[in-house]
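Summary of Year 1 activities. Much of the first year was spent building the evaluation harness for sequence design. The harness presents a backbone, in tokenized form, and records the residue chosen at every position. We chose the following record to illustrate the format because it has been used consistently in internal testing since the harness was completed.
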């Protein structure tokens, strides 16, 4: 219980010890030294000076010559039990104390530095010094607390209980702040930028430019499985148009899925922005309900508009588009390739390579990021690397500095396939393999790459698609399904490449128009609704008083914060008015206090090691070196017992460490003949005034 107070640096320690006990074994001084080894906070107090044996005193201790402390000792004389029972006045007791010090021959020269009034003065001086030393640090701490509170109190400044228009002001402020926060989260600006994870506009941007293109490419590359078009059933132009329309219709699914993903992110963004409305639960619920209903209304209009774009693409197949390869040009290319090829398969493959080379993109970096490379434990185990995907290769490095390259894998003839998660595994895994059954990395036919989330895996797959590495399910059909008729094969390849070319144009158009349509019909429309119409909807939704009713927790928190804010401001004002030009005393120099033991408190009965008596017998003896006296004095922690001539020789002797070489009565003494044997007179113990 004591330690929890005296361990604080701002606590002064009064080590109180009676004058008729062994000061060297004082428990108070032992504990004080543990928490204040430098002695800067410890003041020694010696009580019961009037109960010492006649002819003994504590002069050397009070002068800080014997058993010194850095801040020295102060002697006091308190009321005895008899004085307390007799209701002796405190003023009379202090007068008697002063008379004692002035009349005592050993203390009269330092009477001005003894007594309870001097102890009060000393403590006041130490308190003044402490306040003066800690004021600058305290002022800085309060100022920093004030600055941190001002940001939170700012939102409460308009909420004055005595203001009749408080709720109206609060409603206007909340709605305006909600609109500003939503716009900042969508635009990714201001203090709404989240550095921990993607949110708001960043996630919507990823949907537009990674997730949606990934879904489109999956549908787009499905046309590579078109086979078996027979010339007897369709002419080339009719077959081309039928296949193109079938593929365009398949684009509806990823477009609608994109809208659903954007709506989900919008609703999550709304909920994040309404966190600041937590002070008013009813207002928060109504705001979320109104804006969510509005987004759901815009969802239908946006989907109708996107489906209209698909229908527009279906209504007319523009074969005169400047980016379309055309029948005549493609037929010439295929005929030339077939003339210079040895067989049909090589000719078709050569034609595909030509078309692919024409569409090839430069060797630019497509994506960078951390992935876990899964390898068996026998071959090194799983490890995380920094991967860099370009248009021609996949490289991985030790870290993002890209100085130590581990491997570079060309993308030729590579495919992707999904891998099932293992038991208790939280990673999402996909594999890369070579279609020609060659080793991909060292002696491995495939490598497995792991992502932390499904979203990351889909994003990486979309990046691989951009680099020309497609999923396994998009492989071309087996060669035995091709017709061996060169003319029929040529017509099939013609239609295939025409569809490829035209769907690429449609894909490009949809990728461009989808984000624009969603931004215009949904996101920008939601911004305008919040700024212009949300307040009117809130007013019409119910009673304003119930709408702006604070939660009990929030009201209590606001009151406590405002109270703390004003208290800190008042404290800073008080500190500013304090004059630091107070009279202060310098810190005393260090003293040798090694005499204070650092062990646990001593038992009650421990005889002290005596030392040769000084010129003036001290009140308390400590363990000092020297030969033992002929008449050692035992030390006991029991209450002192008055000593009288002829007392029981088997009774416990009194504990008077200040007596020079005394033994209890009844024990043969080796004192030299003629030495006086003065009796010890001790008054009953009295409680300390400080206690």
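For this record, the design step produced the sequence shown next.
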């Amino acid at each position: 219980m004591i330690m929890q107070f005296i361990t604080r640096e701002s606590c002064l320690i009064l080590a109180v010890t009676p004058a008729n006990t062994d000061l060297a074994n004082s428990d108070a001084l032992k504990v004080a030294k543990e928490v204040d080894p430098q002695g800067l906070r410890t003041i020694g107090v010696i009580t019961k000076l009037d109960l010492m044996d006649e002819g003994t005193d504590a002069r050397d201790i009070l002068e800080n010559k014997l058993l010194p402390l850095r801040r020295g000792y102060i002697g006091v004389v308190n009321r005895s039990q008899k004085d307390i029972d007799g209701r002796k006045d405190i003023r009379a007791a202090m007068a008697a104390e002063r008379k004692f010090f002035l009349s005592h021959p050993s203390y009269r020269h330092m009477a001005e530095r003894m007594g309870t009034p001097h102890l009060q003065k000393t403590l006041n001086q130490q308190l003044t010094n402490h306040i003066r030393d800690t004021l600058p640090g305290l002022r800085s701490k309060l100022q920093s607390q004030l600055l941190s509170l001002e940001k939170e109190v700012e939102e409460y400044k308009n909420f004055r209980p005595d203001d009749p228009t408080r709720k109206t002001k609060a409603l206007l402020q909340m709605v305006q702040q909600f609109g500003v926060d939503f716009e900042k989260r969508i635009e990714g600006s201001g203090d709404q930028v989240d550095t921990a994870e993607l949110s708001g506009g960043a996630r919507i941007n990823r949907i537009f430019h990674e997730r949606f293109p990934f879904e489109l490419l999956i549908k787009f590359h499905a046309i590579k499985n078109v086979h078996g078009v027979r010339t007897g059933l369709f002419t080339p132009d009719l077959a081309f148009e039928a296949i193109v329309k079938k593929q365009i219709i398949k684009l509806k699914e990823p477009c609608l899925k994109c809208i659903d993903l954007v709506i989900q992110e919008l609703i999550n963004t709304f909920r994040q922005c309404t966190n600041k409305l937590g002070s008013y639960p009813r207002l928060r619920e109504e705001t979320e309900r109104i804006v969510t209903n509005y987004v759901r209304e815009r969802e239908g209009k946006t989907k109708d508009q996107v489906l209209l774009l698909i229908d527009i693409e279906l209504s007319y197949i523009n074969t005169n588009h400047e980016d379309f390869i055309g029948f005549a040009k493609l037929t010439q290319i295929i005929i030339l390739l077939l003339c210079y090829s040895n067989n049909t398969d090589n000719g078709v493959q050569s034609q595909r390579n030509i078309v692919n080379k024409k569409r090839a993109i430069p060797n630019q970096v497509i994506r960078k990021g951390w992935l876990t490379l899964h390898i068996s434990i026998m071959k090194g185990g799983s490890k995380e690397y920094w991967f860099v995907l370009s248009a021609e290769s996949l490289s991985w490095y030790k870290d993002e500095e890209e100085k130590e390259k581990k491997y570079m894998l060309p993308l030729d003839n590579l495919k992707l396939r999904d891998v099932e998660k293992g038991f208790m595994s939280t990673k999402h895994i996909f594999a890369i393999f070579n279609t020609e059954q060659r080793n991909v990395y060292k002696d491995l036919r495939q490598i497995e790459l792991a992502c932390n989330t499904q979203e990351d895996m889909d994003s990486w797959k979309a990046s691989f698609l951009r680099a020309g590495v497609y999923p396994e399910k998009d492989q071309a059909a087996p060669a035995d399904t091709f017709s061996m008729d060169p003319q029929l094969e040529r017509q099939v390849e013609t239609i295939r490449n025409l569809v490829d070319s035209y769907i690429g144009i449609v894909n490009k158009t949809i990728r461009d128009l989808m984000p624009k349509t969603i931004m215009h019909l949904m996101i920008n429309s939601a911004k305008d609704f919040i700024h212009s119409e949300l307040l009117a909807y809130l007013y019409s939704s119910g009673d304003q008083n119930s709408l702006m009713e604070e939660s009990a927790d929030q009201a209590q928190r606001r009151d406590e914060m405002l109270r703390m804010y004003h208290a800190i401001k008042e404290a800073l004002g008080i500190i500013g008015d304090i004059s630091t030009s107070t009279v202060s005393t310098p810190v005393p120099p260090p003293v040798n206090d090694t005499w204070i033991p650092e062990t646990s408190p001593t038992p009650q009965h421990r005889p002290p090691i005596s030392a040769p008596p000084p010129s003036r017998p001290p009140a308390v003896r400590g363990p000092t070196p020297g030969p033992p006296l002929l008449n050692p004095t035992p030390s006991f922690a029991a209450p002192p017992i008055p000593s009288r001539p002829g007392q029981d020789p088997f009774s416990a002797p009194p504990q008077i460490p200040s007596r020079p070489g005394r033994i209890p009565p009844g024990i043969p003494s080796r004192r030299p003949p003629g030495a006086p044997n003065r009796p010890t007179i001790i008054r009953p113990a009295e409680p300390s005034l400080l206690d």
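The chain is about 45% helix and 10% strand. Quantitative recovery figures across the full test set are reported in Table 2.
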